[in-house]
Amino acid sequence: EPRFLIPLTFPIILLHGPKLVTGFCAHYPFRVENPWLRLCYDKFLCTKSSAMYVMKIWYFANIALTVFFGFMHQAGVFPMAQHFEQQMKLKAPDQHIHLITSHTYMFPLSLVNIPSTQMVHYNTQTGQRYKKRKDFYLYEYGGLDMPQLMSRIRLIMSHCELKKETKKLRYRLFLAIPSSLSDDLNLALVQSNATYMNYELRHVFYPHVSTEALPQFLGRHPGIVDPPHWSDDDLKGTCLLEQEPELSFSYASKQLSSFIHQFGLALYEFELKRNMPKNKKTLTKTKCYT
């Protein structure tokens, strides 16, 4: 984790900062005079040869790392928190929000402005004291494998359905994962044979890079990875046959667009499908790349 190396920044600057001006070596560093060592010093290590390049590398590395860690690495978490802040304001009082995250950093609950369920409130009109009911649930699973993640989703959904039937509490179940895992999520849903479950892509927050799930050049655009709609007879959204790649400009541009759009944080909503399909069809249990 680069953040754990921050305390070393100051001593490293004190020790190696002068090299930005003097280069790697201001004087011949080797004990023995040798033609090859002298050539190496003159071409790469001396002040005249290395100082300019060291400074350029230093500038480039700082700019690149600032852009990556400051604006791209896990950058979709903050706008997603703002999104759920609006969802909490607009939802019905009898509705609970369940958010599952995987392959992302910890979700900042403080940005959602959720009222504390431990604080005692006082009603000036009735004189009663009360606590607000918890209506936002967060499940963080780190880098959990997709099959295990699907089992957790099924477990949470079954618990929510039980509360819906017994306590009349409606719910919405969301999953936030890097968009580079959209195809893996679709594959896991098909392999789990969860015909009672359906999910839809609600939003993609850009930019977002997770080193635990880096984009793949052969991955599909998250917007065209359609989940299997079990209620439809044709199972729309499921790729029955893997398409062979074609060496053409349109294919290359499409793959480049898909690769770029994988730098996002995808938000899916899971729902229980109560109507079963009339006709069953065979689904492929392999990834589809187009």
UniProtKB/TrEMBL annotation:
Subcellular location: Endoplasmic reticulum membrane
Membrane association type: Multi-pass membrane protein
GO molecular function, one term: glycosyltransferase activity
Membrane-spanning residues: 57-81
GO CC term (a single one): endoplasmic reticulum membrane
A Pfam family this chain is assigned to: Glyco_transf_22
Keywords, in A-Z order: Endoplasmic reticulum, Glycosyltransferase, Membrane, Transferase, Transmembrane, Transmembrane helix
InterPro entries listed in its UniProt record: GPI_mannosylTrfase (IPR005599)
Protein name, entry field: Alg9-like mannosyltransferase
Species for this entry: Musca domestica (House fly)
